[in-house]
Amino acid sequence: MTKAPIIQAQKLTKVYSSGKIEVTALKDVDLAVGKGTFIGVAGSSGSGKSTLMNLLGGLDSPTSGSIEFEGELISRKDKNELARYRRHDVGMIFQSFNLIPFFSAVENVSLPLLFAGVSKKERREQASVFLDRVGLSSRKEHRPSELSGGEQQRVAIARALVNSPKIILADEPTGNLDSQTSSEIVGLLATINREQGLTVIMVSHEEALLKEHCDEIIRLFDGEVKVKEQLK
Predict the structure, then answer these.
(1) Could you tell me the end-to-end alpha-carbon distance of the chain, in angstroms, rounded to an integer?
(2) Do 85 and 69 meet the contact criterion of CB atoms below 8 Å apart?
(3) Is the CA virtual torsion 106, 107, 111, 114 positive or negative?
(4) Is 0.90 topped by the overall pTM?
(5) At how many degrees (to 10) do helices 105-115 and 120-133 cross?
(6) For residues 116 and 110, what is the distance between their CA atoms, to the nearest angstrom?
(7) What residues contact 179, with CB distance under 8 A and at least 6 apart?
(8) What is the DSSP letter of 74?
(9) What gap in Å lies between CA 173 and CA 161, rounded to an integer?
(10) 138-190, pLDDT tens digit by residue?
(11) Is residue 161 within 8 Å of residue 189, measured between CB atoms?
(12) What is the Cα–Cα distance from 67 to 50, expressed in whole angstroms?
């Protein structure tokens, strides 16, 4: 049974200009992601994967085409509306973790709640709950330099989840990790997807992990969707 789309793009195009030079990062991409699915995005460097994720996450605007989230046009929102979209609906995970080095794990996770106006006591309580969920109950007061790469990415996952988003966008979340830790991190995302029904879109070069966990793999080549591989 096909699931209703939570996010979809039509004729999505992004062109970057530098002087007289134009580079088309994405061209006429059509995409429909069913609610509660785990979608993999694959492709070589420069194929448009990160551009796609930035557009879906509201970090950048398309040159043309449209993006709808739960039937609402994201591609036409202003900066304040996009900020609310990122704050409440989308959780983003990056290859480089993007943790604040002088903050503890619990402080890093609680940061999105600060921007949402949550009280300090409640921020800490909620952050602790999500660190427990990703298996870091004993590492809450450690700073990033005191954590392994896998632990840092778990902190980043907890931070992405703390605002109870409806969709997770993970851009090469295992790019800086060894193979065993990569498997654990993607397995954690798959568990969250399966148990909480949270929609996950993940960019990865890890072909085996994509095939093990994803419902569908979308393959980009030179900014265009060339293959959609249904797995489940």
Answers:
(1) 11
(2) yes
(3) positive
(4) yes
(5) 130
(6) 10
(7) none
(8) G
(9) 14
(10) 999 999 999 999 999 999 999 999 999 999 999 999 988 999 999 999 999 99
(11) no
(12) 16
Report residue 165: phi and psi, to 5°: -70, 170
Residue 50 has which token pair? 């990160």
Read off φ and ψ for residue 141, nearest 5 degrees. Answer: -95, 5
What is the CB-side half-sphere exposure of residue 232 using CA atoms within 13 A? 15
> At 76, which amino acid appears?
R
In contact, 170 and 203? CB cutoff 8 Å: yes
Q: How far apart are CA 205 and CA 51, in angstroms?
A: 16
Cβ distance 51 to 27 under 8 Å?
Answer: no
196 and 38 in contact (C-beta within 8 Å)? no
**φ, ψ (nearest 5 deg) of residue 22:** -120, 135
Tokens of 61: 């605007």
In order along the chain (232 residues), what is the average pLDDT of each group of 10 residues? 83 91 94 96 92 94 94 87 90 93 96 85 94 94 96 96 95 92 94 94 93 95 91 82
Backbone angles phi, psi at 84, to 5 degrees: -65, -40
At 79, which amino acid appears? K
**CA 168 from chain center: how many Å?**
4
Residues 6+ apart with CB under 8 A from 119: none
Distance from C-alpha of 60 to C-alpha of 29, rounded to nearest angstrom? 15
Segments in the chain forming alpha helices (H) = 49-56, 79-88, 105-115, 120-133, 149-161, 179-196, 207-213
Tokens of 182: 């990569």
